[in-house]
Amino acid sequence: MNNEQLTDLLNRYDLNQPKPIFLRHNENRTYRVQEKSGRNYLLRIHDPFVPEMQGPQHRYEGIVAELAMLEQWGQWRDRDVQVPIRSREGELVTVFEMGGRKLNASLLTWLDGRDLVKNDLPNIEIIRKLGEQLAELHAFFRQYEPLGIEARPHQGRAYNDKMAGVIRSGVEKGLFTAADADTVEETLRLVNERLKDRGGEDGMDLIHGDIGLGNTILTSDGDIRLIDFGFYGRGYTLTDTAMALMVLPADKREIFLKAYYGEQGWTDEHLREIDGFMLAAIIGYYVFQFGNEQMHDWMREKMPILCSEYCRPFLAGEPMLERIGF
């Protein structure tokens, strides 16, 4: 986008002499927007760099559902979170035209801080705050009546079946062997068997859906905040829990679990299910990057390792909590 197009777009919001600074173009095209007063915002143009990454989270109805949730999340919390800014017309999503295409844009408040990095994670207080932040988000989700949730991505049993099919299609492309595709399919089938009495095909809970270092902010005052709800939708809360655990050192994961579960604690069944959700999350990354040819050599190299070191031991009943990640 050129400066004139950005200016026209930002003029649709009640901002004081906004100055956009390009950040990156990945799943969205993003800009940091600074007002004359010094206040900052995040502008997202929902147009992925790789067209194959396009999903329901980029469509108008899906974005509205995400932003409606974030608006309520901001009202529910008593501390700063990233919330949407409505346009002058009162809209959550701004539709504009560029190069003959209609695109969707949204504006969020800015959180001062930086992405969490691995070097932060030996810090017990940071791990504890991450567990508390996720527990608080899930508490909000349990009482939130979702708007337009049918337009959001879901990570339930149907999604696991879909992932198995995508991996299977990679055999013909020369990305995976048939044996590895069989192993992934068996892994996801076992995960689904354990979930057969847990809600419908889309999952029974609301989830963030993409917990990771890049979507976790260490704020300037030392708090932890989760950002980037692009995969918010139906699923299972243990998906979020498993994703968070994977970024932590194995010997620190119990600290997170204590902070997340509190006095009620966790059960062996929780841990068994977390094992499967960890593997489903890893397989999900392969599926998300499937259309990105730059990742294909990486996939060819890593898939045999995933199957031999993690999936097959999982199928044999071995615990994964201390084995996967970091």
UniProtKB/TrEMBL annotation:
Stretches of the chain forming a coiled coil according to its record: none
Taxonomy, superkingdom: Bacteria
InterPro entries: Aminoglycoside_PTrfase (IPR002575), Kinase-like_dom_sf (IPR011009)
Limits of the Aminoglycoside phosphotransferase domain: 26-269
Name of the protein in its database record: Aminoglycoside phosphotransferase domain-containing protein
Species whose genome carries this gene: Saccharibacillus kuerlensis
